[in-house]
Input
Amino acid sequence: MARKFRSPKLVIASHNPGKVGEIGDLLAEFGTDVVSAGDLGLPEPIEDGVTFSANAAIKAHAAAKASGLPALADDSGLCVHALEDQPGIYSARWAGPAKDFIIAMEKVEQKLGNQIDRSAHFVCVLALAWPDGHLEGFEGRVDGTLVWPPEGDKGFGYDPVFKPDGYEITFGDFDPAAKHKISHRADAFRQLVDACFE
Output
């Protein structure tokens, strides 16, 4: 049985404004006061795990310990099938120190070259940690196809090149509310809410 979340405040263990905003929107209905690790001035831990789950846990535990509050971390990335699921856990690192995802998207496109298989999926692992060390984890996924050139200026990260299965537009063209219903993060959130929120 998962531990229930009953704190009035939750730390989002991220310094990415796009990610923090999306998580905040998904939690809005629960009346939880959300604050980001960046706003609290918490340092970013070294993500040296070899899986999404391990890196999410590292971030959640670090933020919970440093803040004394429950902390929710998200580790997510793009897995391109023809590239043996790269960039995967290194999705943010492909954007370089400036976190320039135009560079990251160009890198994916260059590596794909003339590949016929442009299938890919996004993964999101959510880790909810408490200051006492307890952790709950949830994994979501959405499958799709990569397009080039990028389309749309909504969303963040690799959204403008990812067209989810069953849709004719990329996540970069999706209205945020519509994306929140079908994304990898939404999938993981449904599991989190069912298990930990009342």
